[in-house]
Design brief:
By secondary structure, the protein is α+β, with helices and mostly antiparallel strands. It is built from one helix and nine strands, in the order H-E-E-E-E-E-E-E-E-E. It has a domain at 34-115: Sandwich (Immunoglobulin-like). Strands 2, 3, 5, 6 and 7 form a five-stranded antiparallel β-sheet that branches. Strands 1, 4, 8 and 9 form a four-stranded mixed β-sheet that branches.
Amino acid sequence: MKRALICIILLLTTSALFAQFGDGQKDKNSSGTRSLVGFVTDKESNPIPQALVYLKNTKTQSVKTYISENDGSYRFHQLSPNIDYEVHAEKDGKRSDTRTLSSFDMRPQARINLKIDR
């Protein structure tokens, strides 16, 4: 009887753990979307205002843009967690390296800072 009771308790505990954590594939973000934020700076880490930041959806090839704020910040919201995005910035004919926000990055708010050598 003791063994049966222990087995039942272990089974219930294990079931509760699987129900709580699921299969590990679900997005931790309950809204189902994520955001990308960051700063556009020069090589001395000074902010670059009014830089044009490009965000490309690698699945559809569609591009969104954002003009960086006076402090160099930019943001993109409502991004799909299941898609890779490429981001880069341009200002006065100069361009940052292209960086990737991977679909494997499960943070609800990812940060990618972009550097333009001027």
